[in-house]
Each structure stands twice: as structure tokens, then as C-alpha cells.
Amino acid sequence: MEIIYLLIPIAIILVSVAIWAFFWSVKQGQFDDLESPAHRILFEDDDDLIPDDARPDKDNRKDP
User: Which positions are tagged coiled coil (predicted)?
Assistant: First the structure.
């Protein structure tokens, strides 16, 4: 029974820290944009690694 006197204050402290961390992250803007980080991985940023002779020719494309 004496352990309950220790566990209740520890639980209150942990809940207080979790609530503080949540409000801090909302204030810092962590939840403002949830979709663009998931789409960012799809963008190609390796255009400089493609050799010039392997690049598609934008001027000579034929429309289907």
C-alpha cells in the first residue's frame, strides 16, 4: 500500500510532462503540415547524376 504513495506522484509528473511536450510541439508547429513530408520522398533530386546523353530531350518529344 505504501507504493501507491510513490506511484501517484510519479504518474502525475509523467502526465504533466506529456501534456507539456504536446503543447510545446503544437506551439512549435510540428503538426502544421502532415502531408508534405510524406510526399517529399517522391520528388527526384538526382537530376545532376543523370548523364547528358541519357536525359530525355524536352524539345524533341512527340505528342501521342
Answer: none
CA dihedral 31, 36, 37, 40 (to 10 degrees): -170
**Which segments of the chain have a pLDDT < 50?**
none
Under a CB-based contact definition with an 8 Å cutoff, are residues 25 and 31 in contact? Answer: yes
**pTM > 0.85:** no
Phi, psi dihedrals of residue 12, rounded to the nearest 5°: -65, -40
Per-residue b/e over 42-60, b at no fewer than 16 CB within 10 Å? eeeeeeeeeeeeeeeeeee
DSSP 50: S
